[in-house]
Amino acid sequence: MFPPDGYADGQWVDEDAGPVVRPYALTGGRTRPVGESFDLLALVCAVRGAIPDVTQLEPEQLTVLRKCRVPIPAADLASDLDLPLGVVRILVSDLRERGLVTVHGPVAVRLADPQLLKDVADGLRRI
Amino acid sequence: MAYDASEPGLPAAPVPVTIKILIAGGFGAGKTTLVGSVSEIRPLRTEEALSERSTMVDSLRGVERKSTTTVAMDFGRITVRDDLVIYLFGTPGQQRFWFMWDELAFGALGAVVMADTRRLADCFPSVDYFERNDMPFVVAVNCFEGVRRYPLDAVRRALQLSSNSPVVLCDARRHDSSRDVLVALAEHALLRSSRAPAGV
User: Fold this and answer.
1) Using one digit for the tens of pLDDT, what is the confidence trace for B39-82?
2) B14: which chain A residues are within 8 Å (Cβ-Cβ)?
3) Which of A32, A53, A67, B36 has a CA-to-CA distance to A61 between 20 and 30 Å?
């Protein structure tokens, strides 16, 4: 048995070390999405009937396409794919360029709305 | 707003209202821990081992048992109702990642500023940021084991808050404690909204 912090010196590599492929290798080293920027909570939705050219897409992008058959926030995609949000936004923006997904802003809310804030407080008390 | 379902014949999926809350504070103050203790999903985080260079940037003084720092962000989710989902975003702790703050803060309900009384000054930049942007926030003093406790009044004085933002104690490892911090933030935002004159 080794101490829990035994790999903290960087010599141990296990699942805590993260993916072997550096995340931004998936984006060809790009760190900015293409086209119009979108919110972390923007809803990504697959375009119905669009036929993806699977030879042109990364496996992660195919996963994105599968998961956004119903609208899903970009942040949730990142969680599901276990990838940094920045990477997911680039993958999504590529899919949008190809006409395979649409990206809509999150549902607009009025943050000063007392009823909404009350709902948030009440909802949080129950978790 | 209506969205097409993937399969013909299925009703369009209801799109919940999403609320964003920021979790800020200095390096090692407990942001990741707090997000982890209340999130229903495994918090997404990108942590990189500190390099020699960033070790110099990140002064480890007073922060034991932590060998990596979050260079991207933590993110968690709390579904409070089918139609209301809260997302928590941890802000990058280091100043060289501040370019990400404005985007994270855009449209956020408010923020939790995590504070460690051993290095209280580390949370000043976060407090300044939210006061400057007139965004509701609470300061959550994370009670680390073996660390001297200070009365909240003393912490509040030391922070020199120019706002009436609440200062609360928490144990970020505990679900109920972290939840109470978020409730305090929502209640503070509610109080502010009821005080705000119309049109301002």
Assistant:
1) 987 766 554 333 333 444 445 555 544 444 445 567 899 999 98
2) none
3) B36
Nearest-Cα distance to chain A for B170, in Å, is 15
Using alpha carbons, select from B86, B154, B80, B88 the residue that is nearest to residue B117: B154
pTM over 0.80: no
Q: Is B190 on the interface with A (CB under 8 A)?
A: yes
Q: Are B124 and B150 in contact (CB under 8 A)?
A: no
SS (H, E, C) B108-177: CCEEEEEECHHHHHHHHHHHHHHHHCCCCEEEEEECCCCCCCCCHHHHHHHHCCCCCCCEEEECCCCHHH
Are the beta carbons of A106 and B186 separated by less than 8 Å?
no
Contact A70 B5 (CB under 8 A): yes
3-state secondary structure of B77: strand
Please name the residue of chain B whose CA is at the shortest distance from the CA of residue A118.
Answer: B190
User: Nearest Cα to B116, choosing from B56, B180, B35, B26?
Assistant: B26
Q: Which residue has the tokens 């119009």?
A: A36
- The answer to whether A107 and A73 are in contact (CB under 8 A) is no
Say what the ipTM of the complex is: 0.78
Please name the helix (run of DSSP H) or strand (run of DSSP E) that holds residue A43, with its range, or none: strand A43-46
**Which amino acid type is present at position A41?**
L
